[in-house]
Each structure stands twice: as structure tokens, then as C-alpha cells.
TrEMBL record, chain A:
<dbReference type="InterPro" id="IPR025997">
    <property type="entry name" value="SBP_2_dom"/>
</dbReference>
<feature type="signal peptide">
    <location>
        <begin position="1"/>
        <end position="20"/>
    </location>
</feature>
<dbReference type="InterPro" id="IPR028082">
    <property type="entry name" value="Peripla_BP_I"/>
</dbReference>
<keyword id="KW-0813">Transport</keyword>
<feature type="domain" description="Periplasmic binding protein">
    <location>
        <begin position="42"/>
        <end position="288"/>
    </location>
</feature>
<comment type="similarity">
    <text>Belongs to the bacterial solute-binding protein 2 family.</text>
</comment>
<dbReference type="GO" id="GO:0030246">
    <property type="term" value="F:carbohydrate binding"/>
</dbReference>
<keyword id="KW-0732">Signal</keyword>
<dbReference type="InterPro" id="IPR050555">
    <property type="entry name" value="Bact_Solute-Bind_Prot2"/>
</dbReference>
Automatic annotation (TrEMBL), chain B:
<feature type="transmembrane region" description="Helical">
    <location>
        <begin position="273"/>
        <end position="306"/>
    </location>
</feature>
<keyword id="KW-0762">Sugar transport</keyword>
<keyword id="KW-0812">Transmembrane</keyword>
<protein>
    <recommendedName>
        <fullName>Xylose transport system permease protein XylH</fullName>
    </recommendedName>
</protein>
<dbReference type="GO" id="GO:0005886">
    <property type="term" value="C:plasma membrane"/>
</dbReference>
<dbReference type="GO" id="GO:0022857">
    <property type="term" value="F:transmembrane transporter activity"/>
</dbReference>
<keyword id="KW-1003">Cell membrane</keyword>
<feature type="transmembrane region" description="Helical">
    <location>
        <begin position="239"/>
        <end position="261"/>
    </location>
</feature>
<comment type="function">
    <text>Part of the binding-protein-dependent transport system for D-xylose. Probably responsible for the translocation of the substrate across the membrane.</text>
</comment>
Length: 323, 346
């Protein structure tokens, strides 16, 4: 009986903690759902896992748009295709006024997206899945063409005299990343070697990159596809005693510092804040004024390049988590 | 939850008997936990207790539940399988590649995937039984090997990191109807997977409670040495349990593929712990020899409810895992508390 009583106490204590937490993350919290003066609500469902620096900026953009427009915006992300499909179904059940989806895996999401459109909910795709967007009946696609961006990065590396590039893929299963490496191959005109690492373990990724550089001395360029990996790659190059030049996709405060310091040659910026902000604006315009944007073509948010020249301008903004 | 039939007053003894029997079941606590989680979200959010909400929560619960039931059998038998999660992905990749690259009929490809699953289970089981190494270690090795195979072979065969385009394969339509079709009830789309989940739970419960094999499973999980000395084929029982888990994982993997028509090479990683957690919420002990298939199914239901409920509640997604973890610990504590109370009353 004593054990039972102690268990009861523990259960009550935990429940209190849980309730306190829901209290500080209640319905009108700036984090979870923004206030909804207009009564309109939009759901943003991405394939980014919680805690990913890139997707956190998208989340900020979407939530800021919600605040600016007085609409409620909920953001959810899952790296697993079946969970993402489930989240879309939940949004349909929630009867939202619009859904924003990143389609890293278009085949898996086709069914729920079509179901949303059939239920009269407009869908805008972002970031990945541009090729399938119109086919599925999405209102528009907001993002960056991965092949084009990769090509640009390849050309810029070739301009810096790089001959053989290591392209670091951090998310197995994401076709967009493979397209970036493919584009880099086209743009570079030299050899590009792919290396598979995991975004959920940066320390390990750094070691893998260092080992690869030590094993193959002819590599004179590293192209990272994520800012955290980009910073890790700088240290990996130092560790391996290599003289390879590092370039990266996407920004973070650390990446910009490294660009300013000349440790990273350049960063490809796809300005993902826009991928959160613009779709909410577009869905809101569609709801209030039946406007569509883009004329059936993707709305490009990038690529832009952050180099030593413009790094200072972007730095403050990146520190705030909006670049 | 099955309602206890109202019994005429002069048969009160019968109800006492039933109540006592219910109180001693391992899944009772899980049922109370499930009721608590359901009530909480039904009151807290408006969409949860609608047909759409129920369909959305049963969907992930069903897939998880089929696996949790198989894993529960293995855990009652005193072993772990950490390779079950990636085995689902391996199977989906095999079916996908055979059907899209070689033009094999989906059903034939499924047969190959099930054979592959049986081999994985045999490998796990024989290694555990022969070497005496903890299954935690053996299956962790299998898990890592399969993870590498999944990515390596997929890249080798397709040149990309995902297999897609199953829709055009032979036999897709019939396989989809059997394993991934949906039907509408009051606005919610319910998946056929839910029926498979119920079937798996029923079969596993029947095996555990009504057959000699079930007695063997409890015996080897409780005390393998003692079981062997009284003539229980401990090695065979354990190997068959591993095969059961891996074959179930193959079928579940194929179900996921038929639903999504594409599969990523990194799918299934991390799922194995969810199967184990669902089984534990359902009253399985980590040490073996105790547990129930119905409990594991209810554990999966709690998981599915928590996942969808958190989304409907609109809590900040940054905290999602924290809420999920808290809910699961609470459900398990409640489960334990109810069981202790029930045992004290006996």
C-alpha cells in the first residue's frame, strides 16, 4: 500500500508539471498558435524535425505572417512521411482555411493533399516538391529550384579554382539534396563526390567529413547543404589538415561569422523566412480576395549568395533568427 | 472498451467473478490510461472526439499496434527486438524495388519481402539462442546492418534515396485494396489497417491464452532454464517469436508502402522503441514472463491519441516530444497504480 501511495503522489506531481507546461504554452501563446482576430486559421506542415535551425526560421516567418495578418497559424513538422500525411489529415479535420506543405516526398503526401483540395482547402507547397506541386492542384509553390541553386554553387566554386568537391548529404531520402549535388556537378565541370551523414548527430558528421578528407587528398572543396554541417565542415577541414575551400547552403549566425572571417567561401541563401511568410500572405489573399500568385510558376525565394562583401548586412538579421 | 453486460441481481456472484477476473488482467491499467487520455483530449479540444479525429488517431495507432502486439509476444518470451523498425523499411524497399525495377507483381514481391523478414527473424533468433548474448545487443547489430543495407542497396539499384512509382506496378490495385484501402464513416476516413490490427490482437491473444505455444511463451519468458527442464522447447519458441516479429514487420512495411506508394531509405529508424513502449504501457514487463497482446494494442492506441491530441490542442510543436513523453509516463504510472490497487484488493 505504501508503494501505491507513493505512486499516486508521483502521478499527481507529474500531472501538475504537465498542466503547468500546457499553461505556459496555451492557446494564445506566440509559439504555438498566433492570435486569430480574423478567425482564419492556417496550418503549416513541414518535413523538418523539431530543433532544425533552417526550419525554425520558416516557422518564425509563418508565425510572424499570422501575427501581421491577425490570422491563427499552427506549425507542425515531422521527418517521417507517414506522420506528415497524418498531420495534413488532422489539419483537414481541423477545417483550416489553408495548408502549407513542404513536399520532400511528394508521392507519400499526394493522397492527403488531394483530399485537402477536394475538401475545398487551398494548399501551397514550399521548399521541396516543386515539380509535383501544380500536378497535385496546389495553388502555388514557394521555394528554390535545387538543381539551379546547386549549379550556381558549382559555378562559384569553379570560379574559386576548385576541381573536386565533396557534397555532404545530411538527410537520406530527401531528393532535393541529391539535386543540389547533381546541380553542383553540372556547374563545377569537375568531379563531385557525395558523402552521407546524419543531421541528428553533427559531431559524428564532422568526423566523417574529416576522415573522408584525410582519405582523399585530392578533394579541394566541401559543399555542405545545411548551415550546421557547414560550420562542422570548417572544423573538419582544419582537423584533417586539408586546404579545401568550404561553401554551404543556407544561413545561420555561425555561418555568417565564418563567411566574414573568410573560413567559408560563400553561403547559398534561399531566404527560407519567405517560405514561411509568403504562403500565409498568399493564402490570406486567396481567402479574402480570391487572388492567386505566381501564374502557375514557382515563386522563387533564392538562390542568393552571402559572401564576405554583404555578410555584415545579413548578420544582425540572422542573429534574430529570421535569415 | 467492452461494456460489462448488465446482469440480473440474483446473479451477483457471477459479476464478482468477472470483476475479479478483469482486475487481475495486465491490460486493465492500460485501459484506464487510455480512457484518461481520451477524456482529457475530448474535453480539451473540439476536433478530437469527432469521426475525423478518431480516424486520424486510429490510423497511426493501427500500424503501431500491429507491431506492438508482435513485439509484446516476444517481450513476454523474455527478449527484445531493436531491428523491428528498420525491418519495416527493408521490406517496403524490397517490395518497391522488385515491383518498380524488375516489374514483379506486387503480391510476389510481398512474398519475397516476407521471406526476407523470416530470414532476419531466424538470424536474430538463432544468434540469441546459440550465443547466449542479450537480444538487445544482437538485434542492435541487425538494426545497424539493415540501416546500412537499406540506404546502400537503394542507392545502388535506383540511383536515388527513395523508391517510388508503385502505383503503376502489377497487382497494386488488389494489394492496395487488401492492405491500404479506406472507407468513410461520418466524415472520417478509416483505414483497413485498423481491421488488421484487431485481427492481429485477437490471434495473439488466442495464442497466448488458449494454446500450448502460449504457455511456452510465458514459461520461457518467466524462467527459461526451468522451462527447459520441464520439457518446453525454449530455443524453438524464442526463434519462432523473433520470426513472428520480423515477418509482421515485413507485412507492416508493405502496408506503409502501399499507402504512400513511395518509401525513403531512412524510414523506420526509431520506430522500434515505440513498439516496445506501446507494449510496456500495455503491461508487458521488460524482464519477460508477463504481459498481454490486448494491452499492447491499447498502448498503441494511447500513443496514437497522444500524437493527434497534441496537434489538435495546438500546443507549440517545439515541445511536442516533451508532451508525448510526459503523457506516456503518466499513462504508464496510472497503469501501474491501478494494477497495484487491484492486487492489493485481491
Amino acid at each position: 500500500m505504501k508503494v501505491t501511495r507513493r505512486l499516486g503522489v508521483a502521478t499527481v506531481a507529474l500531472a501538475t508539471v504537465a498542466l503547468a507546461l500546457t499553461g505556459c504554452s496555451g492557446k494564445n501563446d506566440a509559439g504555438g498558435k498566433t492570435s486569430d482576430a480574423s478567425g482564419r486559421k492556417f496550418a503549416v506542415i513541414t518535413h523538418g524535425s523539431a530543433g532544425d535551425a533552417f526550419w525554425d526560421v520558416v516557422k518564425k516567418g509563418a508565425e510572424q505572417a499570422g501575427k501581421d495578418l491577425g490570422a491563427s497559424v499552427s506549425y507542425q513538422g515531422s521527418g517521417k512521411a507517414d506522420e506528415q500525411a497524418n498531420l495534413i489529415n488532422s489539419a483537414i479535420g481541423d477545417k483550416v482555411n489553408g495548408i502549407v506543405v513542404s513536399m520532400a516526398n511528394p508521392d507519400a503526401l499526394a493522397e492527403p493533399i488531394k483530399r485537402a483540395i477536394a475538401a475545398g482547402i487551398p494548399v501551397i507547397t514550399i521548399n521541396s516538391g516543386q515539380a509535383k506541386s501544380a500536378e497535385l492542384g496546389a495553388l502555388a509553390h514557394v521555394g528554390q529550384d535545387e538543381s539551379v541553386a546547386g549549379e550556381g554553387a558549382g559555378r562559384k566554386l569553379a570560379g574559386a579554382g576548385v576541381k573536386k568537391v565533396l557534397c555532404v548529404v545530411h538527410e537520406a531520402g530527401n531528393i532535393g539534396l541529391e539535386q543540389r549535388c547533381g546541380g553542383a556537378r553540372t556547374g563545377l565541370g569537375g568531379e563531385v563526390v557525395n558523402l552521407q551523414v546524419s543531421i541528428s548527430n553533427i559531431a559524428e558528421a564532422q568526423n566523417t567529413i574529416a576522415s573522408k578528407l584525410q582519405a582523399d587528398k585530392s578533394i579541394d572543396g566541401v559543399l555542405a547543404l545545411n548551415p550546421a554541417i557547414g560550420v562542422a565542415a570548417v572544423d573538419a577541414v582544419t582537423k584533417a589538415g586539408s586546404s579545401a575551400k568550404v561553401a554551404t547552403f543556407d544561413l545561420s549566425a555561425d555561418v555568417i561569422d565564418a563567411v566574414s572571417a573568410g573560413k567559408i567561401l560563400f553561403a547559398v541563401d534561399q531566404q527560407q523566412y519567405l517560405q514561411g511568410y509568403l504562403p500565409i500572405v498568399m493564402l490570406n489573399l486567396y481567402a479574402t480576395n480570391a487572388n492567386t500568385v505566381g501564374g502557375g510558376k514557382p515563386v522563387y525565394t533564392g538562390p542568393g549568395f552571402v559572401t564576405k562583401e554583404n555578410a555584415a548586412t545579413v548578420k544582425d538579421l540572422a542573429g534574430k533568427g529570421t535569415r | 472498451m467492452a461494456k460489462v453486460a448488465t446482469v440480473p441481481t440474483d446473479e451477483r456472484l457471477a459479476t464478482t467473478g468477472l470483476a475479479r477476473r478483469l482486475l487481475t488482467r495486465p491490460e486493465l491499467g492500460a485501459a484506464v490510461g487510455a480512457a484518461a487520455v481520451f477524456t482529457f483530449f475530448a474535453l480539451y479540444t473540439e476536433q478530437f472526439a469527432t469521426s475525423t479525429g478518431v480516424a486520424n488517431m486510429l490510423d497511426p495507432a493501427a500500424t503501431l499496434g500491429i507491431m506492438a502486439v508482435a513485439v509484446a509476444l516476444l517481450m513476454i518470451g523474455g527478449e527484445f527486438d531493436l531491428s523491428a523498425g528498420v525491418t519495416t523499411a527493408s521490406s517496403a524497399l524490397i517490395v518497391g524495388m522488385l515491383a518498380t525495377e524488375l516489374g514483379l507483381n506486387v503480391w510476389a514481391a510481398l512474398g519475397v519481402a516476407i521471406l526476407f523478414g523470416a530470414c532476419v527473424g531466424l538470424l536474430n533468433g538463432i544468434l540469441v539462442v546459440r550465443t547466449g548474448l542479450p537480444s538487445f545487443i544482437v538485434t542492435l547489430g541487425t538494426f545497424l546492418m539493415l540501416q546500412g543495407l537499406n540506404l546502400g542497396i537503394t542507392k545502388l539499384v535506383t540511383g536515388t534515396v527513395q523508391v517510388r512509382g508503385l502505383k503503376t506496378a502489377d497487382g497494386y490495385a488488389s494489394a492496395h485494396a487488401v492492405f491500404a484501402s479506406t472507407w468513410k464513416i461520418g466524415g472520417g476516413e478509416y483505414r483497413v489497417t485498423i481491421l488488421w490490427w484487431l485481427l492481429a490482437t485477437a490471434v495473439a491473444t488466442w495464442v497466448l491464452l488458449r494454446t500450448r505455444a502460449g504457455n511456452w511463451i510465458f514459461a520461457v519468458g518467466g524462467n527459461a532454464t526451468a522451462a527447459r527442464t520441464v520439457g518446453v522447447p525454449a530455443a524453438r519458441t524464442k526463434i519462432l517469436l523473433f520470426v513472428t516479429v520480423s515477418v509482421t514487420a515485413s507485412i507492416v512495411g508493405a502496408m506503409l508502402l502501399l499507402r504512400l506508394t513511395s518509401v525513403q531509405a531512412n524510414a523506420g529508424i526509431g520506430e522500434e522503441f515505440q513498439y516496445i513502449i506501446a507494449a510496456v504501457i500495455g503491461g508487458c514487463l521488460l524482464t519477460g514472463g508477463y504481459g498481454s497482446a490486448i494491452g499492447a494494442a491499447i498502448g498503441a492506441l494511447i500513443f496514437g491519441m497522444a500524437k493527434q491530441g497534441i496537434v489538435f490542442a495546438g500546443w507549440d510543436s517545439d515541445w511536442f516530444q516533451l508532451f508525448l513523453g510526459l503523457l506516456l509516463v503518466l499513462a504508464t504510472l496510472l497503469n501501474l497504480y491501478v494494477r497495484r490497487r487491484a492486487e492489493a484488493k485481491k
